[in-house]
Write a structure and sequence with these properties.
CATH class of the largest domain: Alpha Beta
CATH architecture of the largest domain: Alpha-Beta Horseshoe
Oligomer: single chain
Shape: globular
CATH topology of the largest domain: pyruvate-formate lyase- activating enzyme
Number of domains: 2
Distance between the termini: 44 Å
Strand content: 15-25%
Strand order of the largest sheet: 2-1-3-4-5-6-7
Helix content: 25-40%
CATH superfamily of the largest domain: tm_1862 like domain
Radius of gyration: 22 Å
Length: about 425
């Protein structure tokens, strides 16, 4: 039986994020592959080293290797190291690249000599079809969302298909115990999960803009099955949701939180300030009360700036700093830990506006429980609305795939961002999720 290896190469943000979690970007694609036709293997470079990858190539009859890449964090460089091993072992194995970076720069990615083809858009709908075509040496031109090389020439296929649905995850493809971790703000046996994909908001700096506000949910029956599996078989007592925004569908969020309460799970998730504001306007505080009663331990929220001009004109946050402070106070009143992220070094941001953000952080620190704050430095992601403005402000984008690898939103990487700002940013980051000693 032919083997397809799904690879999520290592990411070097360990000083800021000590935990590495289930790589759903590749697990979600591997899960739709029929087991009676192909063997699917999920390889997580945050858990296994290059030697383990080389052993897979030796032991299996590998047809293709599918790599998911994000911009920055050294993942692209680490991915290319593994892609080189593939070609050194057997040039006939097909290297397929996908993921958020590929979605915005497919042709530049494909121009790299180690990349044979790229998949744009959600791979759940077309990857199996692509693998069948590769195995049968069939024509690729009718497969949606694929760009490929043939005799040195690049060919583009049909536009990507939107998702019909989010499919169930096949957790037998990974070692669950590898991903049960201590999180000081949730529980001692916490695992991550993604219950929805996409975001309906359009913050100008964010990669979610490139997905055109498409939003999909994992059907509630799949989520309940997975919660039962985690708790009964692995004694998991905490869930960290990595949805872009867990509360876009308020009714679905309440239904899931009720299940979390039933299973005795502590949990954390991300929200947009407007989610809470809308619920407050509905009256009765149904959402926050439900969140508290179901044992939510932490809410992560992107605040981005303490300047109303930046929030409105640059970021398109759709909430003022007064709105955001009101939301943060309400979260604290319910005894939930707020975890708030900020971004400095935006194009045309003034020193005074940066000071406003630092002052806003200090105001949030007066709340009880004292919130976490994590401050990033703006880096221009291709395909986002702010990207063009960054270029017009003097940013010179990388010309090759490998040069995107070193992007790091904890470092000054644009011509208008100073090392002094970088030092100040680090001082105002107070994430407290540390590994248990």
């Amino acid at each position: 039986m032919k083997t397809v290896i799904f690879v999520y190469a290592g990411i070097n943000f360990k000083d800021n994020y000590p935990c590495s979690w289930i790589p759903f970007s590749i697990l979600s694609i591997a899960s739709v592959m029929p087991k009676n036709e192909y063997e699917s293997i999920v390889f997580d470079g945050n858990r296994k080293d290059d030697n383990a990858f080389a052993e897979l190539l030796l032991q299996k009859d590998v047809l293709a290797v599918a790599f998911s890449i994000m911009t920055g964090g050294d993942q692209i460089a680490n991915t290319l190291d593994l892609a080189l091993k593939v070609k050194q072992y057997n040039e006939k194995i097909v290297n397929i690249f996908g993921g958020p970076h590929v979605n915005v720069l497919p042709i530049q990615t494909l121009e790299h000599p180690l990349v044979d083809m790229v998949v744009v858009g959600p791979g759940q709908e077309n990857f199996y079809e692509l693998i069948k075509a590769i195995n049968n040496e069939a024509n690729l031109s009718n497969i949606n969302g694929v760009h490929y090389k043939l005799n040195g020439k690049i060919y583009s296929c049909l536009p990507p298909k939107p998702l019909k649905s989010l499919y169930p995850y096949d957790f037998s493809l990974i070692n669950i115990n590898d991903y049960i971790q201590y999180d000081s703000t949730i529980s001692d046996r916490t695992i991550n999960y993604i219950a929805s994909q996409g975001c309906v908001y359009a913050c100008n700096f964010c990669y979610e803009c490139t997905y055109k506000k498409r939003y999909y949910k994992v059907p509630i029956e799949y989520i309940e099955k997975d919660l039962f599996f985690f708790t009964q078989k692995y004694n998991v007592n905490g869930i960290k949701f990595y949805d872009a925004d867990f509360f876009i569908d308020k009714n679905a969020a309440i239904a899931v939180s009720n299940m979390l309460k039933e299973y005795g799970l502590k949990w954390a998730a991300s929200a947009h300030p407007l989610d809470i504001l809308r619920a407050e306007k509905d009256g009765h505080n149904i959402l926050l009360k439900n969140i508290k009663d179901s044992n939510c331990r932490r809410l992560l929220m992107g605040i981005e700036s303490g300047s109303n001009r930046i929030l409105k004109e640059v970021i398109n946050k759709r909430a003022s700093k007064e709105d955001i402070l009101f939301v943060a106070k309400r979260i604290a009143e319910y005894g939930i830990l707020g975890s708030y992220t900020f971004m400095l070094g935006l194009p045309n941001e003034t020193n005074e506006e940066q000071d406003e953000t630092f002052e806003f952080i200090e105001k949030l620190w007066e709340l009880s429980p004292k919130p976490e704050t994590n401050v990033h430095i703006y880096i221009p992601y291709p395909g986002t609305p702010l990207y063009k403005e960054a270029i017009s402000s003097g940013f010179i984008p990388p010309a090759k795939l490998e040069d995107w690898s070193s992007f790091n939103y904890y470092k000054a990487m644009t011509p208008w961002t100073s090392l002094e700002l970088e030092k100040r940013v680090h001082k105002f980051s107070s994430l407290i999720n540390k590994k248990k000693q």
